[in-house]
């Protein structure tokens, strides 16, 4: 029996193969991110959310399941500027973040959490039963898109991790370990060679680096919001 499929091609190559037609909204977003992460090698690209407040960016590298996107979706509704949900793009010349404010990807339980917490958020179509579960994207804030040409320096590198039942804790980590962990989350660190090392060392030297464990979004927002005040004039 014939079933309609959705496929994204890049120069004739389908990086995700063929998926169900109802997965088209998700595969389009994945395809756009894939094009940037695999082809843009004049910048250092890190698999990390990145947001900004008071002129300084917070990079949040984390593997799937760490609550990164849920935390990002919440913070941008609380006044932070979205620079990217998935790809932190860093200019190797000045170590500043180049904004890439695409829709924020939410999966499974996170969809209902954000929908209930922020009912005015605009959701795209729901793609069910993907390889990542149920996937939906939310519209980036208008101001984030309007300011997408405004780069900013990096003030913090924070590794978030959602753990059910824990109190929010922010623990400083060493610069060396932070550099290693960020490099492991980069798509093209090794391809950039010495330029990649130099810009990442510059970022880590100037940033405060932390592990952040949380289970409650209200606590998480209360913990992270004061960081932005440190750089306010």
Written description of the protein model:
The protein is of the alpha+beta class and 233 residues long. It contains 8 helices and 13 strands. The chain has helices spanning 24-39, 68-77, 109-117, 142-146, 175-184, 189-192, 194-206, 217-229, and strands at 5-6, 19-20, 43-53, 56-61, 81-84, 87-91, 97-98, 104-107, 127-130, 133-138, 154-162, 169-172, 208-214. Strands 3, 4, 5, 6, 7, 11, 12 and 13 form an 8-stranded mixed β-sheet that branches. It has a 3-stranded antiparallel β-sheet with strand order 8-10-9, sandwiched between helices. The chain has a two-stranded antiparallel ribbon with strand order 1-2. A hairpin with a 2-residue loop joins strand 9 and strand 10 (133-138). It is globular, with a radius of gyration of 18 Å. The mean pLDDT is 91.
How does the SSE layout of this entry go?
Layout lengths: L4 E2 L12 E2 L3 H16 L3 E11 L2 E6 L6 H10 L3 E4 L2 E5 L5 E2 L5 E4 L1 H9 L9 E4 L2 E6 L3 H5 L7 E9 L6 E4 L2 H10 L4 H4 L1 H13 L1 E7 L2 H13 L4
Helix pairs in contact: 2-3, 5-7
